[in-house]
Amino acid sequence: MTYRLEVDLHTHTLASDHAYSTIHDYVRQAPKQGIRLFANTDHGPDMEDAPHVWHFVNSLTFPRMADGVGILRGIESNIKDLDGNIDIEESVRSTLDIILTGFHPPVFAPRDIDANTLAMKNVIKSGKVHVVTHPGNVRFPIHIEEIVKTAAQENVALEINNSSFLFSRKGCYSNCLKIAQLAKKYDAPLSIGSDAHNAWDLGRFDKAIELITEVDYPAERIINNTVESLFAYLATKGIDIADEFDF
Ligand SMILES: [Zn+2]
Ligand SMILES: [Zn+2]
User: Which phi and psi angles does 184 have, rounded to 5°?
Assistant: First the structure.
């Protein structure tokens, strides 16, 4: 299986204090990494060092294309509670192109496997999110099969997060492998994300590619494999924006 992976849906700018690059840096880096389209997804406002909520609303001012690279307006929101609520209101959510969400300990302290699974299932079923970030995180054990089945049912992508294998969540490879194997079995969509906190990591998918290659996960079920596959996925969520971009 060959993967194109020309879209990166998970990047942070220096608007999140523990990240270090600007939108311009990402645009400059994109062609070097084979990235045609990327999403700016800074941390949702409940994280300690997240930008103010206006940061997200005002991303409407981004051009759709800069130097031939497409830019999506996004967020990596936080799962807040067992009901699967996230930390942005509908009025903000509806201005954005893509909504990522995930567990982050400062907002949702890791609980037992049943509670973590319940919260994640509820957020997937909420209809408000498009990608669940780093579901293989060892700090947040989940019933993987139950989550993958729910994701398949709701057509919500589970992320294979490349940076987890490098820096932040070591030890999650076996969880992620199981997620990818079951996603193939149940036909759940995956998203491959760099989770770049600096521009040099944009489009860095090396470890994630090893993993999906091991599983032989079908390229056509990866929502960010091509620009077209991403726009087709978003269209299933009522976000019909392909015509706004000049590819
Ligand atoms: Zn995250
Ligand atoms: Zn992130």
Answer: -65, -45
**Distance in Å, CA 103 to ligand 1 centroid:** 7
DSSP 3-state of 73: strand
The strand pair at 65-66 and 69-78 is best described as antiparallel
Per-residue burial over 81-104, b if 16 or more Cβ lie within 10 Å, else e, is ebebbbbbeeebeeebbbbbbbbb
Q: Which residue has the tokens 């800074």?
A: 42
Tell how far the Cα of 193 is from the centroid of ligand 2, in angstroms: 9
- Of the pLDDT bands very low, low, confident and very high (cuts 50, 70, 90), residue 167 is confident
Domains of the chain, residue spans: 7-244
Tell me the Ramachandran region of residue 196: left when phi exceeds 0, alpha when psi lies from -120 to 50, beta otherwise: beta
Helix 206-215 crosses helix 173-186 at what angle (to 10 degrees)?
Answer: 50
Q: Among all ligands shown, which has an atom nearest to the Cα of 16?
A: 2
Query: For residue range 83-127, what is the model confidence (pLDDT) as tens digits?
Result: 999 999 999 999 999 999 999 999 999 999 999 999 999 999 999
CATH topology of domain 7-244: TIM Barrel (3.20.20)
Q: Rounded to the nearest whole angstrom, what is the distance from the C-alpha of residue 76 to the centroid of ligand 2?
A: 6
Other beta carbons within 10 angstroms of residue 198's beta carbon come to 16
Exposed/middle/buried for 177, CB within 10 Å: 0-12, 13-18, 19+?
middle
Residue 12 CA, ligand 2 centroid: distance in Å: 6
